[in-house]
What does this fold into?
Amino acid sequence: MDETRIWQVVDAERTATADLLAGLSDAQWAHPSLCAGWTVREVAAHLTLGPRMRIGDTLSAFVRARGSFDRMVDQTARAEARRPPDEIVATLRGIAGSRRLAPGQTLLNCLMDTLVHPQDIRLPLGIERPMPVDAAVVAAADL
It folds into this structure.
């Protein structure tokens, strides 16, 4: 799978996830996701961050998290999740087409996040959407 195809999948998944989120009820936004300790809202907020994080933002967040990458990811998602759902949806739609990666992120990391995190939202809500098999195979091979 070439880089162009990977970005096409990332764009399609971001758009499909934004479409899904736009139709959720308040109760669904507050529903626990498959990411331990996060609701659908935190996962959705996390999905908006990668292309928007700059090196300075990332370093500041890392320092606030006292050097813990996992704590940084959690804190940034929770902070972003304070935004209204319609803003989260609009931001996710707005990053479809972006070719920016988070500092230190690879394109295959981005593909994995874009494929897996929507499932973290969908499965607990009982909403099915199969992953594109070719993309899932490439992402899984990068583990």
